[in-house]
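Re-run with default settings, no changes from the original entry. Doing this only to confirm the output is reproducible before filing.
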Amino acid sequence: MNSKTTAQRAVSVLLLSLTLLLLNATSYSQSLTSSPSKTQIVFLGTGNPGANPDRMGPAVAIVVNGTPYLVDCGPGVVRRASGAVRLGVKGLEVSNLKTLFVTHLHSDHTLGYPDLIFSPWVLGRKEPLEVYGPVGIQAMTNHILEAWQEDNDIRINGLEHANTTGNKVSVHEIKPGIIYKDKNVTVKAFLVKHGSWRQAFGYRFETPDRTIVISGDTSPSESIVENCNGCDVLIHELYTQVGFNAKDEDWRKYLLSFHTSTRELAGIATRAKPKLLILYHQMFFGGPEDTEVGMLNEIRQTYQGKVVSAHDLDIY
């Protein structure tokens, strides 16, 4: 075989290889553009009223196709969203924080509300914040807007020249049922039992690829079982039996009325049958012996399903 023939064959092999690479790249690109939507659950805060610097106030982001939907807004919510962006969740850019669902009006779930109204606006958000929550969220909003009125006036009419729309809030006081729907998600609100609160809600999110139920704060509620019913993810609050046993009688009465124990949650989850149970708003009242490992051990004594305990900035 002469050198000319060898060179021609080498060129042919090279062209064939390049063609195959091009076809593979085209196929990969098409698979990306035609792939199903991706839903991410980002824990922006897993804490409670306790001043734990590792756990911000309760806040969960459901991010669908890059669009975030927030549930509750405890202290630190906006900065935790920025932290999630650093981890690659680009949908949580501060200017994208536009939709909020509030479970109830306890302070640990709402102290970040002024932050969520004003910080994204100061940083460039032009759209009003859309808020869905129980009766009373309108009055809370009115008081917040009044409290920061001078700040807003200086930012808009002073040298910052801020826009006049991103600091607005559109409030929707809701009732049980489907309360929100767009191309990414359908959101259903349902009542839960949370002590003396007239209204406390859990939420069910249906996205193209996942069904997610969030309890909010609640004592054992049958509505959790009904709305999960084999859901992909159930996110639920709880306290330990160790912590319960360490408290006095008054505290025990409070916990039984307002919250859910590990044993009670094990029973709820067994009947609700989520594919994944995620613990948040974890409450530890029993001192050094009351730990996250102990909490998981307690629930696994009677619950056979998959369960994890969330931390701030965990992504599922």
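Residues 37-175 form a domain with the Metallo-beta-lactamase; Chain A fold (CATH 3.60.15.10). The radius of gyration is 24 Å.
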